[in-house]
Amino acid sequence: ANHEIPHDDVEQTIDMGNALGWLRETNASLSVGGRLVSGVLVLRAVARGLRKHTKLNALWQGGDAVPSEEIHVGLAVSLRGGGLVAPALRNTDQGSLSDLMARMTDVVARARAGALRSSEMTSATITLTSLGERGVESVTPIIFPPQVAIVGCGATAERPWVIAGQVVVRPLMHVTLGADHRVSNGHEGSRFLSTLDRLLQEPEKL
User: At what angle do helices 97-112 and 38-52 cross, to 10 degrees?
Assistant: First the structure.
């Protein structure tokens, strides 16, 4: 894919303080099995962002990008024996966060058990990959054909950040959007990342 698709990569650092604070408050009232993780917020925010930036939610078919009316985010999952799969979470922009969390947990477990359905392997309209659990600061991902975009996230870690002219310590996450330059450009990509940032600043609305 990296040889056949002209990748256009844009990057942005997102302050995850609001998101993590909301998670702490929300999880305090939930059972251990029902608690949310930050990854589900990113997953939902990516999906909601695609409602506005529809060029990125498309499939390359017959020499052109065909927009998808539905948003099915593929979640990159590393397999214990090596390799990588990216099963789709259908209609990722819909439903409750608790429901999405349950579906995400289920699909990861089935991916590692080799129990995915064929439809889950072919229906993704964009992919989210995260190496945060490995401590990686940033990732430049490669698009999964026939998709035309992919989002990569690094670890959320406390780093210096400037707010109102003052240097403070904030939990920051580095995000990269890789997009097919035949379909979109850096301007569109930067607008998508700005939308993603805005959505993660208001986690209660996700």
Answer: 110
The one-digit pLDDT tens for each residue of the chain (206 residues) are 788 999 999 999 999 999 999 999 999 999 988 999 999 999 999 999 999 999 999 999 999 999 999 999 999 998 887 889 999 999 999 999 999 999 999 999 999 999 999 999 999 999 999 987 777 899 999 999 999 999 999 999 999 999 999 999 999 999 999 999 999 999 999 999 999 999 999 999 99
Neighbours of 103 (CB within 10 A): 18
Per DSSP, helices labelled H in 53-146 are 97-112, 118-122
Q: How far apart are CA 193 and CA 174, in angstroms?
A: 11
User: From CA 9, how far away is CA 26, in angstroms rounded?
Assistant: 34
Catalytic residue among 92, 125, 129, 195: 129
Q: Does 187 qualify as catalytic in the annotation?
A: no
Q: Residue 107 has which token pair?
A: 């699909």
The one-letter amino acid at 64: D
Give the DSSP H or E segment for 49.
helix 38-52
- Residue pair 203/22 in contact (Cβ under 8 Å)? The answer is yes
Active site residue 181: yes
Q: What is the pTM of this model?
A: 0.95
